[in-house]
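Reproducibility note. Readers wishing to regenerate the assembly model reported in the main text can use the exact inputs given here. Chain order matters: entities are listed in the order in which they were concatenated for prediction.
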Amino acid sequence: AQSVTQLDSQVPVFEEAPVELRCNYSSSVSVYLFWYVQYPNQGLQLLLKYLSGSTLVESINGFEAEFNKSQTSFHLRKPSVHISDTAEYFCAVSVGDKIIFGKGTRLHILP
Amino acid sequence: DTAVSQTPKYLVTQMGNDKSIKCEQNLGHDTMYWYKQDSKKFLKIMFSYNNKELIINETVPNRFSPKSPDKAHLNLHINSLELGDSAVYFCASSQEMGVQETQYFGPGTRLLVL
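Running the prediction on these inputs yields the following structure tokens for the assembly.
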């Protein structure tokens, strides 16, 4: 069975500080990995995804995530957060014909 | 223009009623989905359709019946609503069927059953 674990339900960070949102998955087969972001009162939007190739993937707004097969992780990082990054972040893994989402991590940006 | 739209945005109703949620996408995608997000933000797939054909049907009570009149629409009808049906329901679409595809989500329909 496949599952996704987001270890932190909430992460408070000061503005302009770095942040890491953790994601671990369990799967016995190859996977595709995603990070989706949900801004307040909106639907989810794709932030970045890993399908194959380079294990480091980047988004257009400064986030990056690294696929680590040995540690079965896909942590999301940003070197300097902005107030506009306040949102819920969902890690997801897709195997077979479905996507399984983690329970989300709420990122609080403190002024 | 909104890529994936849902109506209504909010729905408050009594237990036992029947209600429908509509979803439309103007992206020309072949595949559409319904997800349920519970009060703890846990997001779980309910159904997926590809070219109007049902592909995924998770263990959802048969009170929930999706209908896809055409590729651009996937509606969700719920019979005999129960308190536990209260949640946010998201519609999504992707260009093709395939787990590597990016999914585009609608804004959600917040359903409250009293």
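We highlight two features of this model. Chain B has a mean pLDDT of 92. The CA atoms of residues 9 and 109 of chain B lie 5 Å apart.
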